[in-house]
Every structure is written in C-alpha cells, then in structure tokens.
Amino acid sequence: MNWAACDGSARSESDLEQACKSSRRDGGTNDAENDIMSQSLEQFSAQCHDALKAEPGPAGRRKVCELLQAALKDESFVAKNLDDTTPERKILYEDPELSFCILAHSYKGPKESSPHDHGPSWAIYGQAAGETQMSDFELVERATPETPGKVRKLRTYKLTPGVAHLYNEGDLHSPKRDGPTRLIRIEGVNMDTVKRLKFEAV
Ligand SMILES: [Fe+2]
C-alpha cells in the first residue's frame, strides 16, 4: 500500500516527551500539558524540524503528521494561524535548513481537484475545519511533460477536523469539498517552485 496515515491515538509516550522537550527548549513553560495544549507556530515548526532532521524519510514525516494532528486539536493554535482573512494558500513558515513549508489554506466554495502527486516532494494534509473527501489513485500510465499520465481510483475517505494524512512522493490523490474548508498543510518543499505533471482518471 503506497499511502500512509498517521493516527494521533497511536502517539507514543516518547513522542509526547519529545514534544514537551522541544516546547520547553523553545521558550515554553515547564507545564508540559499546557505546552502541548496550546503551542506557538515557532514551537510547532521546531518540533517538525527536529523530527525531520532525526529521520528525513517517511518515518520522520509520520511523526510530523502526528504532531500536526495534535496541533489541529489545539483550538488556540488553529485560531492563531487560520482566520477569516486567510487566503487559499498562505505560507506560515519555511524552514531555512530543510526547506519544508507549513501552510494555511482557507477554501470557500465547492471544488474537486484533478488527481496529482507533488512531484519530487511529499505533503501532509491536516483538516482544521469542514470536510475533505480525499481519493487515492494508482498509476496506470506514467505522465510526461507533453502527455498526462493515467490513473485509476483506489479508494475515497473523509478528512474531518483533527485528521491529518501523509502523502509520500508519487502518492496520487485528489481532494474534493462540497463547502468551505480550512486546512493546515505541510509540504516537503514549497510547491510554488515545482513544476508538476498532469494526470487523468481512467
Ligand atoms: Fe495534493
């Protein structure tokens, strides 16, 4: 199976300890519970940085996915980073060393996106409000710069508030929404700088 999800309920004690340590190191209080319940973007980005630096592959991203799920349940964190003025895409943080980006997205009307991957990058979709119906696809025929690739739908599932999913390099997916949604997403690199190939469902 080429898709990966993280599950906050599976978060280990050592992860929690690490999260607390990072929060304290970055200026939080000694009250570990408060640090986890309400953290700053600086603390969250430092935790993501540490997880990805320690394990640059999918394992580190799964930790980041778990950190994001915890952050999405932090009402104060979400309110500070997503509000009525948030556009469809806003970069909240870009890591100067590892190049990953934390983004806020606020979408208004219904929309279904074409199947896509993120080229050489990975991405984590974190649902903050509303509902995304996400579909995963398998590759049938590779894309070239001239010709769209062909893909076949495998499954559809819901991203509801507090849920985050990891899409590794080449994982093909297509989000759909019927109404307004808000997400916090993390991209391995700023996707504004990456040219992507097109895919068609067959
Ligand atoms: Fe995507």
- Strand order of the biggest β-sheet: 1-8-5-10-3-2
- Arithmetic mean of pLDDT: 87
CATH superfamily: Jelly Rolls
- The sequence of SSEs as H and E is EHHHHHEEEEEEEEEE
**Tally of domains:** 1
- Strand percentage, roughly? 25-35%
* Structural class assignment: alpha+beta
Count of helical regions: 5
Label the overall shape.
globular
Measured between the Cα atoms of the first and last residue, the distance is: 20 Å
CATH architecture title: Sandwich
Question: CATH first level: which class?
Answer: Mainly Beta
Q: What fold name goes in the CATH topology slot?
A: Jelly Rolls
Low-confidence runs: 7-31
Give the proportion of residues in helices: 25-40%
| Small molecules held by this entry | fe (ii) ion
Radius of gyration based on Cα positions: 17 Å
Secondary structure tally: strands: 11
What's the arrangement of secondary structure elements?
Layout: E1 4-5, H1 13-25, H2 32-37, H3 41-54, H4 58-72, H5 75-81, E2 90-94, E3 101-107, E4 111-112, E5 123-129, E6 132-141, E7 149-159, E8 164-167, E9 172-177, E10 181-187, E11 199-201
Parallel strand pairs: 7-11
Antiparallel strand pairs: 1-8, 2-3, 3-10, 4-9, 5-8, 5-10, 6-7, 6-9
Helix pairs in contact: 1-3, 3-4
Bound molecules: fe (ii) ion.
Residues 116, 118, 123, 173 line the site of fe (ii) ion.
Kindly describe this structure.
By secondary structure, the chain is an alpha+beta fold. The chain has one domain (4-201): Sandwich (Jelly Rolls). Helix content is 27%, strand content 32%. The chain has five helices and eleven strands. The strands form two sheets. Strands 1-8-5-10-3-2 form a six-stranded antiparallel sheet, covered by helices on one side. Strands 4-9-6-7-11 form a five-stranded mixed sheet, with no helix packed on it. Helix 1 (13-25) crosses helix 3 and helix 3 packs antiparallel against helix 4 (58-72). Fe (ii) ion (FE2) binds at residues 116, 118, 123, 173.
